[in-house]
């Protein structure tokens, strides 16, 4: 990063009162180094952006070049149908897990962020934020181990009960898992993992809400909740969605925790019985044994590509929501 | 290295010990199957004790990952639960010279069919067909007549059977399903594969430790796992030729020794075609033979010497004994060891 | 109220209260109500348990029922006794508090399980100062039999984790920060910025294992290309740097998205104030915009570090796994804490005696959490120093 | 439905800093009162205590009594929300909601009480309030544009419109005309004159002429020096304050011979 | 080191919206010029074109020429940063930097540009600038406190101090006194009087008396209606504008008989 080593001309020599900092005699006599600094910095910023594009281009290239054999084989020609048959249940499982995770985490996370920014006593709120951030510090292996050895067994009786009493409902149909290691448990673990992400982003934005606007709402006789609805949420909307998207990305892409917690299987609507698998877990579980250059390996990378596309679509929708009324921006 | 390490070697495999014990020096990076990771840890650590200047690293990236790294030259040898196919063997000639690579079944371990049923403290008997029916989900209760009739006098509870299988692709699964397919083909119609058939709904867990702990935690659960890692679980005595054979190291080692070799690869190749439906009395047919795959030819003398020394060490009586103590696998029989030593001696530099 | 009742279109007067003290509830109301809810929930849980066969989780059922009763009860009470708005405000307030309590549950549970299991291992002599060289299954079995201290430690893994994460941070944070600066300050919605935004979004969802495979493939390709051009000798691609690249792929989108949001809400008037003083744009960005947003940026960066420092899957295929320390990023393999934890869990050193491995794994997990905690603390302190001095006006 | 305001020994603090000390003041219903005084003497601070906006700042607190008619608004049983919906406020710096359209900004307070308005009713509220704030003509064609795209003066008038739309009992205005041109200023002054028929109006101003023009009573605040608390020096009929004040300081200030 | 400003056929746009049209004006060096006109007529907009602050807004652009002495500041070879370091600006809304202390706020023009000052030099700059803005006495004991903890008027004076600290050639002030009490206003007016000996000063004000007091020339802007562009109606000696303007509109406006 170009940092501020470079200083513009120091104040005129004498120890007396300094003159203006960038004293120029004429307009055209522009300060070369300054202009260069600007160019350099904007160039660097743009280069960083381009570097990301290049990186992504490489990732995409890597994924598509290694996934060819999943879609085309020499003996059978195009085998897209076969591939889709393999991929669709995984897509389903990934989406179910993410929906559970987001559904559970997003409301709680926004609640926690609000608690920290607007409800908790100001003195305590910093440390509370810190405590919640601790959740992000826990490595996914530990979440996996926790989900597997603690949460899952605890869920067994709940699932059994749900099945016995609400079994007519498709989500609770099917044989309740004897180990509790179902897609719902995995979803809960994912929810815990993405909670601090959403909380952290939303919290920082909530804190930035201009006092001026909060006071405007309060002075109109708004209750705290109405003030939040009127001044905080509209201001933070884009930020909240960004946080949720980051969390969702994590949920979609999380590998190890799901691999450890979920007792995977075929796609099923039931949340309480064994079954379902997510794309990242499927890759992580099967890639190590997939032979070099084999069709299996290609297939696994190809579902990685599918996950790419899912992420893309979800984020495009989110961006669209955010950009719908851009002129009503909070920065003004 | 530090305060509580038992040896002096640790990180300082540098000068101070040089020459005193061995002239071998350098680093071997290798990777592959996780099944033999425990044995590998034992081997690499003990090898480092004997040769303080030499270090062997083993990354448990899986068999496929190991073979891939080996074929790309990243790993000097690979650990793999499955033998290379012919394409891979051809590819190995690029990194290993004209004779390509060869397999040594350095880690042999019986696969136990292990279960956890409250109230059953004795070893249960099951023939291949019963095992297949249980794992296929056709027998769902522990007091089913098929099980009861093979276990006179055992008081079987009506606990439902929970099948636990590996969720990751694994050599253990491949060997187990190979056995089921060979010995009970009319029940088990699925092709042998490293992944569990997706149309059987059952519980699953990652890695051997995962299936073992899941089984231990679940009443009525049954699984298959490397026998050395089943801990306190009961295991099935498998029906072979009318008798019921519990797993044992000798039985496993013998099963490998008596099996035919895979044809068409390097002359010193020791990959085996395990004979699963053996009727031989006393043989235990569910065996995992995990290979170490070496090049016949390495780039330079130093590397060749180092790899040869390590390979010799792992098949040596001492090495096998050490692994067996730590990992609980079956030591190589004398015949197999001799054959392996002969194969390894052909490692050369090119 | 002034507005005399006019024809039907007249808007209703916008308020209902006439007296200041109208309908307040005594201060102890909530406590009483909570106590009541607890009691009712207990009774209900017992009844439900009996009716639906849920005896095995009476406690959790009870805990769940308390808010289920308390929230609506407070809502109704306030609605009836005060007014609807107050009731709704109170309801959401209670929900927010509840959200916080819910978030604490897993936190306490995870931290408790890690601390209680991991602490003995952490306190084992030499755990932080030694590595795993020389630790074999036989040693662990002996430990189990004799009941001695668990040998072996995590020095090498701590070094690996710190070195690799630091390298990933050094790669990702400047790129991420500069990119978000480009997006917020320079691009003005150009096609390039839209493309970057688009692809950064996609990056958030890359599974970590794919990132690892990609980094391995890319480094291998780069090395082979460079060596065939004679620029460098062929060498293994498995090294710390490759892992750092894999982690960067995971880290960059987190940095970009968080800092982008934080930069966007910096008031434009501050930028203008700076420009009007004849300050160049890049200095304005560095000295006005970033300091104003620093606390958000710092928490974004810590978030991204926390995100990757716990990664397992991509490390094994990019940095390998070793038992002793290696400080060199570009040569030799490295071990990191998550990989160490994972391997100790999944493949105990001695399969017949797993306790020592489990103890090491949990202790390592505890150390990892402590490291991230300290990083987080450091980031907050840094942010605190630069952050806007808040006084409401 | 205007109210009387009565402060008794009111001290206002920012944390430990006593910003305003010992204010006793009695403001008649249906009147306009002007607060004048040098910058930093605590006019804004005191004004904000009148609708409990002061306590919104962390650490800020108030001692003493503040009666609205006969209820102490700082009584523990009193909900600040109720106070604020009775006592409306226009801030020194215009603060329209940037994420709302002009129309929604005007309706922001109105919608709070949950009364559902028909389209025509809300149109009427918007039009009335904007006309009252002398902004209607300028914005009637772009009611759905964001409020932040207006000029400074327009924004300020929008905030006034937002406040009068909810028809509070008391209206506090903190230098409402400081960003306005003379025409809008006149319009606001007219508006204040109208408002006082029904509401109690308190206005902070730096403009002596304005204070003289619109208010019936004037309160002069002063501060002895930096770090000292602001005090209410004199409170009397406006004509008296400007022609014949009883305190020397007041005279100096209103005649511009101060400082 | 003051400069002459000369606008030739200047049109100012926000995107497609023509906000100010066809301005021709010639501002003498070492003089004070006041811009007056109704709210929304484009005073702020035009003022911001004088130091190229206008183009900071997305989509905003300018047509025509603006000569500073003899150079067109909108020439492609001209660096806007150079322009802004010559033409300082005080905004309508006080905007001190929230991350900086009062002292650093005053020194912002130096510090942000990376100019290193010795302790004594910077002390001198701070004291001079704060005295110039009539703020020194109020803040001299808390120079290290954040600038955002000041009262509205104090903040505005802080912003003025910040601008004069860097000693530009031209100083633009957008309603600098709108938040100030009469004393500070007087002080600022005195300051302007002093400044004009060395600088060119342009000031937007809604206060006719102020325009009459401080300026030598006055420019009256007006707008025909919403959505229409603002125009420069009349530009002349201040005395002429206030006593005997040549345009009807101007007369109406300055006499308050407008709208
Ligand atoms: N948020 C705050 N924290 C601490 N002190 C404050 C805060 N706001 C104002 N003050 C101090 O309280 C005193 C009174 O400030 P106040 O804003 O009430 O003055 P004012 O009379 O409204 O001045 P002005 O006419 O400039 O608006 C001042 O000394 C000011 O610095
Ligand atoms: N950022 C902007 N985008 C679009 N239009 C704008 C913007 N800022 C101002 N305008 C419009 O340009 C016109 C001129 O506004 P300007 O702020 O220059 O008025 P002004 O004369 O300074 O008014 P006031 O005295 O109220 O400050 C107004 O119609 C205003 O709505
Ligand atoms: Mg004030
Ligand atoms: Mg303006
Ligand atoms: O040896 P596996 O772990 O692949 O069964």
UniProtKB/TrEMBL annotation, chain A:
Gene Ontology cellular component terms for the protein in this record: plasma membrane
Residues that span the membrane, as ranges: 40-63, 83-116, 128-159, 179-198, 231-252, 300-322
Gene source species: Sediminivirga luteola
A Gene Ontology biological process term: phosphate ion transport
ABC transmembrane type-1 domain segment(s): 91-318
Biased composition (Low complexity): 9-21
UniProt-recorded name of the protein: Phosphate transport system permease protein
Keywords from the UniProt entry: Cell membrane, Membrane, Phosphate transport, Transmembrane, Transmembrane helix, Transport
TrEMBL record, chain C:
Gene Ontology MF annotations: phosphate transmembrane transporter activity
Any Gene Ontology CC annotation: plasma membrane
Gene3D superfamilies documented for this protein: MetI-like
GO biological process: phosphate ion transmembrane transport
A family per Pfam: BPD_transp_1
NCBIfam families, A to Z: 3a0107s02c (TIGR00974)
Protein name listed in UniProt: Phosphate transport system permease protein PstA
Automatic annotation (TrEMBL), chains D, E:
Claim: Endoplasmic reticulum is one of the keywords in the record: no
Domain of life the protein comes from: Bacteria
Pfam families on file: ABC_tran
The entry's keywords: ATP-binding, Nucleotide-binding, Translocase, Transport
InterPro entries for this protein: AAA+_ATPase, ABC_transporter-like_ATP-bd, ABC_transporter-like_CS, P-loop_NTPase, PstB-like
Annotated protein name in UniProt: Phosphate import ATP-binding protein PstB
GO biological process: one example: phosphate ion transmembrane transport
Residue stretches making up the ABC transporter domain: 5-248
Keyword Lipid biosynthesis: no
GO MF annotation: an example: ATP binding
CDD domains assigned: ABC_PstB_phosphate_transporter (cd03260)
Gene Ontology terms: cellular component: membrane
């Amino acid at each position: 990063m170009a940092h501020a080593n470079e200083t513009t001309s120091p104040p005129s020599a004498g120890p007396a009162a300094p003159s203006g900092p960038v004293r120029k005699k004429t307009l055209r006599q522009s300060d070369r180094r300054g202009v260069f600094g600007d160019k350099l910095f904007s160039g660097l910023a743009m280069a960083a952006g381009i570097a990301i594009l290049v990186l992504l281009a490489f990732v995409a290239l890597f994924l598509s070049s290694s996934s060819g054999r999943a879609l085309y084989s020499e003996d059978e020609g195009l085998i897209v149908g076969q591939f889709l048959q393999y991929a669709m249940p995984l897509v389903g499982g990934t989406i179910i897990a993410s929906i559970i995770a987001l559904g559970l985490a997003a409301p709680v996370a926004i609640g926690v962020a609000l608690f920290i920014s607007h409800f908790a006593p100001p003195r305590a709120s910093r440390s509370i934020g810190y405590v919640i951030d601790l959740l992000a510090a826990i490595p996914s292996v530990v979440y996996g181990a926790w989900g597997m050895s603690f949460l899952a067994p605890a869920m067994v009786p709940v699932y059994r009960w749900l099945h016995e009493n609400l079994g007519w409902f498709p989500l609770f149909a099917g044989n309740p898992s004897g180990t509790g290691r179902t897609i719902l448990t995995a979803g809960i673990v994912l929810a815990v993992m993405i909670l601090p992400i959403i909380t952290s982003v939303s919290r920082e934005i909530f804190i930035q809400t201009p006092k001026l606007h909060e006071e405007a709402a309060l002075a109109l006789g708004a209750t705290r909740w109405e003030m939040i609805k009127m001044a905080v949420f509209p201001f933070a909307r884009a930020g909240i969605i960004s946080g949720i998207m980051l969390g969702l990305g994590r949920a979609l892409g999380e590998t190890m925790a799901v691999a450890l917690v979920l007792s995977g299987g075929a796609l099923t609507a039931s949340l309480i019985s064994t079954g379902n698998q997510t794309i990242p877990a499927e890759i992580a579980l099967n890639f190590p044994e997939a032979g070099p250059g084999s069709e299996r390996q290609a297939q696994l990378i190809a579902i990685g590509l599918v996950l790419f596309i899912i992420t893309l679509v979800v984020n495009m929708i989110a961006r669209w929501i955010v950009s719908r009324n851009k002129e009503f921006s909070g920065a003004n | 290295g530090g305060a509580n390490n038992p040896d002096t070697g640790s990180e300082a495999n540098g000068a101070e010990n040089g020459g005193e014990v061995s002239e071998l020096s350098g680093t071997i990076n290798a990777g592959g199957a996780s099944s033999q990771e425990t044995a590998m840890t034992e081997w690499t650590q003990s090898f480092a004790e004997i040769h303080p200047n030499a270090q062997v690293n083993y990354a448990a990236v899986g068999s496929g990952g190991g073979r891939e790294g080996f074929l790309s030259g990243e790993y000097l040898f690979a650990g793999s639960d499955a033998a290379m196919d012919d394409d891979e063997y051809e590819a190995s000639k690029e990194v290993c010279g004209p004779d390509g690579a060869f397999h040594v079944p350095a880690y042999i371990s019986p696969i136990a069919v292990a279960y956890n049923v409250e109230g059953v403290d004795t070893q249960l008997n099951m023939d291949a067909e019963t095992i297949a029916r249980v794992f296929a989900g056709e027998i769902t209760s522990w007091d089913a007549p098929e099980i009861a009739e093979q276990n006179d006098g055992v008081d079987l509870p009506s606990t439902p059977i929970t099948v636990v299988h590996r969720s990751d692709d694994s050599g253990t699964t491949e060997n187990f399903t190979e056995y089921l397919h060979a010995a009970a083909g009319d029940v088990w119609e699925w092709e042998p594969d490293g992944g569990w058939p997706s149309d059987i709904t059952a519980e699953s867990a990652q890695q051997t430790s995962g299936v073992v702990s899941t089984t231990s935690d679940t009443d009525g659960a049954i699984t298959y796992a490397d026998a050395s890692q089943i801990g306190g679980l009961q295991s099935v005595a498998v029906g072979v030729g009318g008798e019921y054979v519990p797993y044992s190291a000798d039985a496993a080692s013998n099963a490998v020794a008596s099996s035919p070799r895979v044809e068409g690869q390097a002359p010193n190749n020791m990959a085996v075609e395990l004979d699963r439906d053996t009727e031989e009395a006393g043989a235990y047919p569910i065996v995992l033979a995990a290979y170490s795959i070496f090049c016949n030819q390495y780039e330079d003398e130093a590397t060749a010497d180092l790899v040869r020394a390590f390979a010799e060490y792992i098949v040596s009586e001492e090495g096998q004994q050490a692994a067996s103590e730590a990992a609980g696998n079956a030591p190589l029989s004398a015949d197999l060891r001799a054959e392996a030593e002969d194969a390894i001696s052909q490692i050369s530099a090119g | 109220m002034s507005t005399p009742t006019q024809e039907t279109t007249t808007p209703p007067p916008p308020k209902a209260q006439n007296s200041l003290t109208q309908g307040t509830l005594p201060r102890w109301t909530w406590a009483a109500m909570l106590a009541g809810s607890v009691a009712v929930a207990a009774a209900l849980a017992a009844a439900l348990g009996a009716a639906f066969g849920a005896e095995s989780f009476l406690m959790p059922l009870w805990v769940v029922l308390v808010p289920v009763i308390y929230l609506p009860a407070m809502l109704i009470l306030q609605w009836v006794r005060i007014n609807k708005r107050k009731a709704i405000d109170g309801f959401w307030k209670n929900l927010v508090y509840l959200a916080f309590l819910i978030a604490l549950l897993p936190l306490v549970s995870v931290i408790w399980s890690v601390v209680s299991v991991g602490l003995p291992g952490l306190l084992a002599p030499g755990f932080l100062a030694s590595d795993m060289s020389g630790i074999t299954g036989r040693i662990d079995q002996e430990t189990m039999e004799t009941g001695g201290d668990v040998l072996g430690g995590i020095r090498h893994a701590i070094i690996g984790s710190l070195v690799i994460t630091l390298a990933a941070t050094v790669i990702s944070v400047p790129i991420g920060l500069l990119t978000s600066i480009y997006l917020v300050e320079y691009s003005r919605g150009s096609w390039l910025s839209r493309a970057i935004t688009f692809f950064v979004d996609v990056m958030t969802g890359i599974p970590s294992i794919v990132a690892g495979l990609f980094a391995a493939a890319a480094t291998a390709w780069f090395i082979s290309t460079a060596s065939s051009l004679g620029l460098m000798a062929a060498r293994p691609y498995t090294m710390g740097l490759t892992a750092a690249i894999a982690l960067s792929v995971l880290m960059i989108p987190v940095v970009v998205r968080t800092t982008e949001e934080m930069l966007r809400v910096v008031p434009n008037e501050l930028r203008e104030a700076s420009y009007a003083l004849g300050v160049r744009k890049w200095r304005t960005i560095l000295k006005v915009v970033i300091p104003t947003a620093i606390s958000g940026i710092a928490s974004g960066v810590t978030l991204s570090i926390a995100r990757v420092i716990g990664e397992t899957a991509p490390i094994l295929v990019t940095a390998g796994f070793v038992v002793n320390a290696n400080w060199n990023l570009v040569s030799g393999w490295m071990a990191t804490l998550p990989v160490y934890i994972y391997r100790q869990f999944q493949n105990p050193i001695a399969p017949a005696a797993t306790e020592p491995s489990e103890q090491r794994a949990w202790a390592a997990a505890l150390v990892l959490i402590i490291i991230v905690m300290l990083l987080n603390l450091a980031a907050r302190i840094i942010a605190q120093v630069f952050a806007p001095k808040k006084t409401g006006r | 439905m205007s109210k009387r305001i009565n402060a008794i020994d009111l001290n206002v603090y920012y944390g430990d800093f006593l910003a305003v000390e010992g204010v006793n003041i009695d403001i008649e219903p249906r009147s306009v009162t002007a607060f004048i005084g040098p910058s930093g003497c605590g006019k804004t601070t005191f004004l904000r205590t009148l609708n409990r906006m002061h306590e919104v700042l962390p650490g800020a607190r108030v001692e003493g009594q503040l009666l609205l008619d006969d209820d102490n608004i700082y009584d523990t049983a009193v909900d600040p929300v109720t106070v604020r919906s009775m006592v409306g406020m226009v801030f020194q710096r215009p603060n329209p909601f940037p994420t709302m359209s002009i129309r929604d900004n005007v309706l922001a307070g109105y919608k709070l009480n949950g009364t559902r308005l028909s389209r025509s009713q809300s149109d009427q509220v918007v039009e009335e309030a904007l006309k009252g704030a002398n902004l209607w003509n300028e914005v009637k064609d772009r009611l759905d544009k964001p409020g932040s795209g207006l000029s400074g003066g327009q924004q300020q008038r929008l905030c006034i419109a937002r406040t009068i739309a909810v028809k509070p009992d008391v209206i506090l205005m903190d230098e409402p005309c400081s960003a306005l041109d003379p025409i809008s200023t006149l319009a606001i002054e007219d508006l204040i004159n109208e408002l006082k028929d029904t509401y109690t109006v308190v206005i902070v101003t730096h403009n002596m002429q304005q204070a003289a023009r619109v208010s019936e009573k004037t309160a002069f605040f002063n501060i002895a020096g930096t770090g000292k608390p602001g005090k209410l020096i004199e409170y009397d009929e406006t004509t008296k304050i400007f022609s014949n004040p009883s305190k020397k300081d007041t005279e100096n200030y209103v005649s511009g011979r101060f400082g």
